[in-house]
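re: the backbone from monday

yeah here it is again, tokenized this time
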């Protein structure tokens, strides 16, 4: 692939991902995909906690998981926009230094990957706090809700 095409592709990916990565939770559309995979964002569980029977102990455990996640990603949330700005700056030049731009893009992608991995770990840990009955209840709640949104 030509360097210019790779750079344009990299920029498009960075810009598309930056909106979701800069926040603690993915946008609504991504929540639907997570729910289809059998993973439950904490905001969904909080909204339906009485319906699915979340206990006080589970609520505390999930809150601790979320706090740990937020502590883990705080530095990434601060550092990522600066690295994205560096990439944008490299790409704004009249003549783009391919090696520098690709190296910066890899750095940004690595940070995004680190964020996504931490988020995925959080969601798995949250699911593991639920009982089989609670998973079944949230799946039914989600199925009804997604059916109404179509």
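seq for it, each position gets an aa:
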């Amino acid at each position: 692939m030509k360097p210019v095409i790779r750079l344009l592709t990299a920029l498009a990916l960075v810009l598309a991902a930056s909106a979701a990565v800069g926040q603690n939770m993915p946008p609504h559309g991504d929540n639907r995909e997570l729910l289809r995979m059998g993973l439950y964002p904490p905001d969904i569980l909080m909204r339906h906690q009485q319906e699915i029977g979340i206990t006080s102990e589970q609520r505390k455990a999930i809150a601790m998981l979320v706090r740990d996640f937020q502590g883990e990603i705080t530095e990434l949330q601060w550092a990522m926009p600066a690295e994205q700005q560096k990439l944008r700056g490299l790409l704004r030049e009249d003549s783009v230094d391919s090696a520098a731009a690709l190296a910066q893009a890899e750095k940004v992608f690595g940070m995004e990957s680190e964020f996504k991995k931490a988020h995925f770990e959080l969601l798995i840990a949250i699911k593991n706090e639920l009982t089989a009955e609670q998973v079944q209840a949230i799946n039914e709640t989600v199925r009804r809700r997604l059916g109404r949104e179509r």
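The chain has a mean pLDDT of 83. Helices lie at 3-21, 28-36, 42-47, 49-52, 56-92, 98-128, 132-149.
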